[in-house]
């Protein structure tokens, strides 16, 4: 009888231990609001966030808003209502969430902006992103090197594209690129035949590749019937693909009329394939696995009563406050290093580019 009782006690203790372990791993729910599934990049971000947060013991409420601002606002409000302990938000429009974030603050819910700064709110606690100015520097620097501008070559014709005007990052990308290109424009080594410069003239709402393609069509017909485009500053792969379609439509991409230098960002599979096909020239790789880790570590620190690690407290002013940030380094990718950077790191499998 004593042996039987002891056995029961051991089983009970074991069961209690299992329950305790399960409870220890149930750290609550983190709301993750992503903008769209139309870009492979954001699908990867969402998947990476779920993976890393679940490994840390959190449940994840992941929502995509189909680039619909009211939809994202509703999703964030639902996350607050359902009791998410922290919100991680990649905003569609970084200026439209102030009221929702005030609701979060009233309930003690911390907010981490994910790769897109949320503006005009004091209730953005942290920002996880890449060095967005450096992204632009890499793009502008690639054009500089490819055209031999440092060696005094030129003049060349360039056209400029910017990202969505409601995305704070778009201004960093553009300004970073122009920090390299503007001196050559002023000296006459680069000529913008359209005269279209500045984000008020070159932005592309919602990062829409079809909008970029249409604008490139108009530029070619209005300014390049008897001139060659030598370079196109494109801040994002999805725009680059649209721009390339436009250029191919008027004969670029042939031996007689090679493609201009065309930049990009995010190392999306169609653009890497385009680089291998000698159409797009460059892209910028941002390892979203690492960004997810940074954001998840911020979540963990906040909910453990610790200070999240940041490495920038000066750059990202959102109109109300300077948001403490962690910046990751972007990497140039072209035909010379794509396999090493993208396949060698395990981010992609080589078969994805066949």
Order of helices and strands: HEHEHEHEEHEHEHHEHEHEHEEH
What is the terminal-to-terminal distance?
69 Å
CATH topology-level fold name of the largest domain: Rossmann fold
**Tally of separate helices:** 12
| Unreliable segments of 5+ consecutive residues | 1-24
Q: Class by helix and strand content?
A: alpha/beta
Percent in helix: 40-55%
Q: What best-fitting shape do the alpha-carbon axes yield?
A: elongated
Percent of sequence in beta strands: 5-15%
Strand order of the largest sheet: 2-1-3-4-5-11
Name of the CATH superfamily of the largest domain:
Response regulator
So, CATH architecture of the largest domain? 3-Layer(aba) Sandwich
Q: What does the average pLDDT come to?
A: 94
How would you describe what is shown here?
With 354 residues, this protein is an alpha/beta fold. It folds into 2 domains: 2-124 and 287-328, Response regulator (Rossmann fold, 3-Layer(aba) Sandwich), CATH 3.40.50; 132-286, Response regulator (Rossmann fold, 3-Layer(aba) Sandwich), CATH 3.40.50.2300. Helices cover 45% and strands 14% of the residues. It is built from 12 helices and 12 strands. The strands form 3 sheets. A 6-stranded parallel beta sheet has the order 2-1-3-4-5-11, sandwiched between helices. Strands 7-6-8-9 form a 4-stranded parallel beta sheet, with helices on both faces. Strands 10-12 form a two-stranded antiparallel ribbon. Helix 5 runs parallel beside helix 6 (168-187) and helix 8 (209-223) packs parallel to helix 9. The radius of gyration is 24 Å and the shape is elongated.
